[in-house]
């Protein structure tokens, strides 16, 4: 007969149901429909507790019963999703309870502390400030009153209360962390109770925990906690403590690592001087290898930055191991070979259980050997060379040498050690992210090897990536390595190994190049050996960071070829994340210093050649094999075809309920894969357009298909691909393009391409008001039409483009409006549109309206477009003539001048183009307009704005443009430079900048502006003319004085511009200028500039180089042209005649002219003598 028992129904039910025990009985569920809801239970118990008073009868019994009821209930929302509570109710409850529980009753104190931890932990409540102060005060008093056996529970409650409340408990921090503070006492290394140490460290961790959007704890307390955590990690394991207990999760070492991570996360950590950083890194490096099997090294207490490397030395010699254990790896390897099959594959897939099956396999060979995968040709035949190379995590649990009980303990110990290593790597990741990267570059050699070495390889992050048995630890190591590589382009840019190596020493550039090569080698090994999909994703992402930052143009070719070949199978991997990361890596390779010859070779390589499986032969052999095959010209790049296939491949989706029916065609690949493939296509088009143009039609069809889909992300990437295609066509047809004409895309094909695109779904994307980002990208694509192709489009298509863009400038979305205004700024430069007065007027009115927009982004784009429009005015003035000037409305020009003046007071990103537009407008205005009264005040305000901008503390680009604008205005002969009141201020500002500005590019433009006026009268009286001369001469003397080394590259351009300006002033000088000019040239100033003038005449020191190319703003003259110009100046000076002058004035001026003429004649003579001497010294060639 079956047994029977009674089950109570509900919390207060007096009725019992008799239930028969049977195998067929309904399983017991703790939260069945007849049980009380946790929210109702909490409200009922909370009401009872709040009704109690300190003088209540049976208070202790009531508290004990209520605490038990609270603690026995499970309040996790995952179990009880319908639970509804207010955090303030929990805080009120706890404040009331702590006032009721007497600290003399240790049993109730313990239960109250358990209640605090239970409620706050399960309900995820961060207490408010009054509750925080009440609970912390109560707990601190309890620690001083209650017995020591209660302290662990009390500290656990304190840790829960402090969670996320570090900055709020400011008045308690001194008692907790000050001198002789409670937490310092409990966390001291001398504390024998490890549990108390652990909980005390947890309290400090929660104090340092940063909550996003809230203030952090004061630096002095954070630094104090940091020191305690580091000391706890550096302290040796107590001799009386068991290794398993010491390493278990939740003990001291884990608590210290968690606290250290909280200290370092979320803030830019500032380390003090000395060895603080090295001590932290040394500690973390030791813990990165915690419990690694077969590892026996002496760890340094401090790591030093290069050039003081630290190497792990061998520890105290141990007795030799028996020979039979040395043969064990070979035996295990043999078993593994026979057991290769389905069981191994099952072990690979179960990543969660993989940590439990970690085996005792040595991380490093004890007898030396190659480093992590290097060929071991020199090893003895009795030593199995594959023991150290075979990945440890591929070994099965059948290799264990322990009994069941021993094996269980060893498995737990290895699991705990793996978690310690994982936590240490998390801390190292926080260090890498929180510390200035330049500080860490010196420690790279401690974590990244530079080259494989004979003997045991150094212990680095790559050792963990290749050898650690835990996939989670390997993934953490890869994350740290990725963070170190991210943003290291400037540091790695020093690497170079293309030059012939010097046997005497190894330069740093060569060592860094070896580091890059070793990273490539080890990460490629990890790519081939990794079995965990999550870790494999991290391997590929790490490779992408490496490829994005390595300077392949300075390295010997061949690094990318094996990676390119081995990566191919992963594009079709079963895991979506792996496929996406593989495409990301391909995208990084085609964007790295594009175009790279090696990548061009790989792109032309057919898909079937050099397959990724065998790896036979060298990458060079595989790459060259197809090149000489029948001399055939390769077609489209295989990567491009692959990405097109990934984007467009579809499958028929058939419903289960409709047998035999065909469903709609859906994409075969998930959205992340398709989006990444579209990005790779865009990178390919940007970097290797000459290869991608073979598939121009197919790429246009891909873009059109993406625009027809319903997914906005796919549509957006389709328009970006279209934008890259248009930009590639424009770049190919620029005047400075090196692509030969036969290799360029035929213009008929370009016109056909854009005709199909503009007749297709792009028009729909432009009008999709519900997706403003798509509209913005479509506007960018519309602005990337080649101007010559636009001219050949049908009139209705041209009109459609213009109409749509003008309409989108009225959009309520600022991004769309900014993109449309920018596109109009591009269209205004088209030859077929810039001479259309109606289009210019419509575009000008639209731009002026956008200049008043509230969005800074819209105003910046409008200012840029206004600058382009005014550039067009100058081009039309020079090409069409006065007809265009007369057709353009005076009032429109006035509005443009006033709007540009107002915009010049805006932010720098608006101002830099507004001042450019002002210079163009001042150059464009005719005499009849300048003399009208309505233009007088706007003209003065415009010049005043330019003068203020030149002298302001704005960005150098703004001041550069302002100087250029003044020079542009000086080109207008109708401007009254000789008589206008603002003229003196304009010249004074340029004279001040040319001598004092720290930026040489601003000096160059100011000197060029001072040399623009074509008439002597424009410079005003003699005083202003001589002031300009002295400023230019002083600037020439100081042309090499700068505190910024980067400015030296502009020295030659600055000197040439200054010398041309001085020669221009001499050519314009008149009779009245001679006394002052003669005195200047005969004095110290003439001596100081004579050498510069001599070198200028002989063409020495005037090589601008690549840095100064195009920076001078003046046309560089040949030596012959310079000499002829000086001779013409001399002739003009000799012909100067004086009429109606007093005798004294005439003698003074004649004397000055003689000095000037003598100076210039001597200059010509010295130049000729030097030229003759150089010719004679060269002599006839033998």
From TrEMBL:
Keyword Repeat: yes
InterPro entries linked to this entry: ARM-like, ARM-type_fold, DUF4042, HEAT, HEAT6
Start-end of Basic residues biased regions: 331-341
Stretches with biased composition (Basic and acidic residues): 342-351
Domain of life where this protein originates: Eukaryota
The keyword rRNA processing belongs to this UniProt entry's keyword annotation: no
Keywords: Repeat
Name of the protein: HEAT repeat-containing protein 6
């Amino acid at each position: 007969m079956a047994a029977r028992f009674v089950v109570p129904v509900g919390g207060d039910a007096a009725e019992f149901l008799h239930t028969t025990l049977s195998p067929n009985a309904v399983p017991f569920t703790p939260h069945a429909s007849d049980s009380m809801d946790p929210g109702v239970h909490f409200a009922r118990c909370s009401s009872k507790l709040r009704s109690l008073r300190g003088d209540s009868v049976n208070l202790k019994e009531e508290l004990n019963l209520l605490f038990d009821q609270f603690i026995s209930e499970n309040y996790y929302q995952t179990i009880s999703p319908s639970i509804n509570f207010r955090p303030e109710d929990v805080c009120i409850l706890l404040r009331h309870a702590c006032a009721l529980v007497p600290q003399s009753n240790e049993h109730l104190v313990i239960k109250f502390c358990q209640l605090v931890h239970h409620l706050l932990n399960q309900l995820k409540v961060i207490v408010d400030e009054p509750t925080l102060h009440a609970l912390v005060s109560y707990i601190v008093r309890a620690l001083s009153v209650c017995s020591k056996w209660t302290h662990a529970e009390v500290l656990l409650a304190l840790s829960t209360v402090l969670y996320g409340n570090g900055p709020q408990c400011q008045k308690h921090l001194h008692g907790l962390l000050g001198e002789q503070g409670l937490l310092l006492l409990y966390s001291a290394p001398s504390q024998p109770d490890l549990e108390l140490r652990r909980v005390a460290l947890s309290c400090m961790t929660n104090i340092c925990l940063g909550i996003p959007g809230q203030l952090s704890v004061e630096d002095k307390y954070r630094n104090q906690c940091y020191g305690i955590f580091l000391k706890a990690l550096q302290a040796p394991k107590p001799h009386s403590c068991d290794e398993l207990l010491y390493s278990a999760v939740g003990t001291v070492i884990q608590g210290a690592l968690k606290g250290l991570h909280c200290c370092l996360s979320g803030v830019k950590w500032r380390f003090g001087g000395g060895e603080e950083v090295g001590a932290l890194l040394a500690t973390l490096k030791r813990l990165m290898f915690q419990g690694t099997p077969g590892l026996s090294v002496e760890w340094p207490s401090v790591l030093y930055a290069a050039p003081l490397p630290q190497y792990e030395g061998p520890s105290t010699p141990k007795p030799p191991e028996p020979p039979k254990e040395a043969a064990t790896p070979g035996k295990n390897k043999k078993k593994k070979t026979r057991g290769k099959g389905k069981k191994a594959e099952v072990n690979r897939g179960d990543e969660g259980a993989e940590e439990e099956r970690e085996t005792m396999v040595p991380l490093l060979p004890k007898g030396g050997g190659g480093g992590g995968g290097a060929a071991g040709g020199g090893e003895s035949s009795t030593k199995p060379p594959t023991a150290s190379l075979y990945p440890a995590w591929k070994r099965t649990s059948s290799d264990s040498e322990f009994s069941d009980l021993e094996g269980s303990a060893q498995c737990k110990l290895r699991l705990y050690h793996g978690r310690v290593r994982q936590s240490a790597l998390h801390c190292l990741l926080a260090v890498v992210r929180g510390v200035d990267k330049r500080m860490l570059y010196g420690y790279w050699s401690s974590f990244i090897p530079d080259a494989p070495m004979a003997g045991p390889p150094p212990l680095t992050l790559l050792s963990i990536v290749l050898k650690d048995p835990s996939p989670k630890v390997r993934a953490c190591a890869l994350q740290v390595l990725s963070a170190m590589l991210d943003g290291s382009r400037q540091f790695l840019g020093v690497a170079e190994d293309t030059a012939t190596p010097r046997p005497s020493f190894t330069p740093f550039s060569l060592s860094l190049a070896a580091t890059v090569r070793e990273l490539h080698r080890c990460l490629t090994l990890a790519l081939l050996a990794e079995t965990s999909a999550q870790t494999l994703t991290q391997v590929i992402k790490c490779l992408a960071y490496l490829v994005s930052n390595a300077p392949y143009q300075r390295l010997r070719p061949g690094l990318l070829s094996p990676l390119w070949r081995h990566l191919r199978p992963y594009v079709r991997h079963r895991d979506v994340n792996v496929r996406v990361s593989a495409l990301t890596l391909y995208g990084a390779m085609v964007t790295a210093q594009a175009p790279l010859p090696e990548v061009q070779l790989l792109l032309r390589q057919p898909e079937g050649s050099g397959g990724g499986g065998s790896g036979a032969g060298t990458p060079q052999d595989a790459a060259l094999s197809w090149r000489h095959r029948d001399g055939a010209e390769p077609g489209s790049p295989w990567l491009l075809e692959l990405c097109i296939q990934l984007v467009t491949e579809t499958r028929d989706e058939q419903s289960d309920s409709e047998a035999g029916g065909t469903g709609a065609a859906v994409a075969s690949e998930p959205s992340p894969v398709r989006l990444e493939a579209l990005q790779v296509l865009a990178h390919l088009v940007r970097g290797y357009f000459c290869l991608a143009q073979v598939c121009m039609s197919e790429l246009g069809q891909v873009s059109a298909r993406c625009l027809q889909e319903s997914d906005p992300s796919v549509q957006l990437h389709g328009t970006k691909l279209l934008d890259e295609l248009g930009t590639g066509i424009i770049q190919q047809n620029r005047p400075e393009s090196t692509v030969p004409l036969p290799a360029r895309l035929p213009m008929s094909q370009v016109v056909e391409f854009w005709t199909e695109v503009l007749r297709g779904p792009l028009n729909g994307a432009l009008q999709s008001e519900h997706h403003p980002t798509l509209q913005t990208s479509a506007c960018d694509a519309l602005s990337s039409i080649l101007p010559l192709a636009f001219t050949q489009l049908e009139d209705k298509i041209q009109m459609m483009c213009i109409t749509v863009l003008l309409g989108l400038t009225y959009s309520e979305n600022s991004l769309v409006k900014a993109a449309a205004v920018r596109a109009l700024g591009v269209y205004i430069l088209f030859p077929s549109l810039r001479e259309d007065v109606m289009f210019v007027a419509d575009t000008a009115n639209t731009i002026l309206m956008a200049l008043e927009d509230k969005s800074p982004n819209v105003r910046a784009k409008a200012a840029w477009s206004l600058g382009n429009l005014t550039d067009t005015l100058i081009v039309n003035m020079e090409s069409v003539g006065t007809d265009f000037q007369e057709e353009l409305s005076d009032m429109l020009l006035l509005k443009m001048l006033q709007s540009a003046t107002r915009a010049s007071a805006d932010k720098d990103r608006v101002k830099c183009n507004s001042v450019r537009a002002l210079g163009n407008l001042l150059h464009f205005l005719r005499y009849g307009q300048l003399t009208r009264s309505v233009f007088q005040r706007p003209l003065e305000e415009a010049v005043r704005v330019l003068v203020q901008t030149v002298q302001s503390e704005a960005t150098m680009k703004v001041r550069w443009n302002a100087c250029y604008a003044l020079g542009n205005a000086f080109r207008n002969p109708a401007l009254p430079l000789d008589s206008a009141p603002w003229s003196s201020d304009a010249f004074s500002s340029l004279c001040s900048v040319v001598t004092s500005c720290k930026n040489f590019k601003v000096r160059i433009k100011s000197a060029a502006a001072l040399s623009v006026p074509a008439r002597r009268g424009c410079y005003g009286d003699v005083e202003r003319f001589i002031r300009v001369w002295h400023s230019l001469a002083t600037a020439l003397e100081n042309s090499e004085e700068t505190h910024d080394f980067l400015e030296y590259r502009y020295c030659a351009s600055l000197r040439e511009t200054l010398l041309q300006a001085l020669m221009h002033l001499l050519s314009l000088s008149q009779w009245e200028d001679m006394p002052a000019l003669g005195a200047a040239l005969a004095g110290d100033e003439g001596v100081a500039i004579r050498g510069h003038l001599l070198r200028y005449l002989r063409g020495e020191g005037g090589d601008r180089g690549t840095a100064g190319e195009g920076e001078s703003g003046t046309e560089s003259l040949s030596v012959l042209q310079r000499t002829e110009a000086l001779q013409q100046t001399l002739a003009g000076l000799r012909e100067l005649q004086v009429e109606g002058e007093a005798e004294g004035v005439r003698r003074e001026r004649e004397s000055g002219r003689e000095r000037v003429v003598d100076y210039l004649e001597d200059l010509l003579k010295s130049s000729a003598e030097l030229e003759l001497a150089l010719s004679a010294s060269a002599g006839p060639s033998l």
